[in-house]
What does this fold into?
Amino acid sequence: MNPSTTKSFKKITLFLVSIVVKMSSTIMMGFSVPRLLGVVQFGYFRLFSLFTVYTSLLHFGLIDGFLLSNRSTTPSSTPTPKLKTVALGLLWLEGCFASIGILASILFLKAELQSIVAMVFLNLLVQNFISLYQTVAQTRGMSQKVSQGSLFLSFINILIVGAVFLFKIRDFLYVTILVVIANYWVFFWYFWCFRRLLFESPSTKTTPFIAIKTLTQKGFWYLVAYIVPTMIVVFNNHLVWFLFPVEDFSIYAFSVNMTIFATIACANLAKITDDFYPKLTKAEQIASYDLLNGAVIFLVLIGISAYFLLQWTTPTFLPDYIASIPLFRIVLGLLLFSCPLGVVTHAYFKLAGKNARFIQIGSGMLVLSLGLNFLVFQLDGSLMAFATSLFASFLIFYVITQVYLIVRLKIPWLRSDGFLLLGGGIYLYISEMENYALGAFLYLFSILLLFGLFYGRDWKKGIRLYRLFMDISPSDKSKKEVAS
It folds into this structure.
């Protein structure tokens, strides 16, 4: 095995291990914390997690602009700011928001909400710095650093679950404090990894304030495009928080938790795959759409088989959350639209130079989703109605973007969308079976058979695309110098 192959193998292995460990820690947190905290306290803990999605936007595209500046291969009259300059700009930006947020929570909020908002803004001080360091790793072709960081955080989360169990913690605030401390540990780990770049003297006269202006102008709409699908889910959750008792919100948040995680993961994966598509010719990009979309749909169809496991684990280990089972069936199903949308469809809008159009469609869907939420609340007023509204929003979003790409790019769509339609139909039909063990077997067998029938002859092409994807490397500019 030559050195290049060995390096790629190690990178792929670390990437896969980090995914497995991260999923394991997420599942442990997702099941252990609700059980140990109880319905009400878990509801407050999930509200904290919900607010952190909003604060992840408070760099206003600074980090995305930094990514785009390092990825660009075209000459620019404006030099890319160094990491030290960008970090100082981000520190100033987040420090201001954190100070205002913590002070406002102390002065204007009370009880649980005061504690939640204060911890959210305390977490903000490191939350977006971690994203910045991950971006640095991506621009330098150091994806293993991101995988190592994910492993580190996952192991800490496992320790948190152990601490909650061992010390019988039943207050959401203590768990929240542990989560924030874990993020600070990850921040310091990344800080140590990139300390040389951080303390390197900038070679340009760019100030932190100029860096903020330059990079936010470049990255703001890039951020918006990636975050729109996530915000559809988050707004839906927040309306449930406003309109229902905390107990109902807790049940709903428990079922939608995995959807938010998967949607954010897809957005992050999409940023990585931006370096993959330029390796294909224009003709290959168009021809590969059907296979890439089908691959994502297949992975989602396999992933949502977790519903059959939830039918057993929830009544057995989490009887207080048994009302979430019908909700799980719907919200897991919407991943069939949100994941292909985030990973593949959006990428092709960018390849066509139509990112602005994707933002327009997504913004329209955000408004439509809010309208659907209020409509179902007036007509039905149940948690199931909100879950169905969320499902419908992503279905409409997917159909509109697909039609646009079919008309504008003439993408091959029939096979992947046919696979999605049949696979989704099989999921909805078999998931109604009372015998979940038999249902799981029949479902997985059907999906594997269906995938073989639709894509079996393309396995060689699939392997080639996978190898190209796993060999993602930064642009030549990034190899020479990373903005510090």
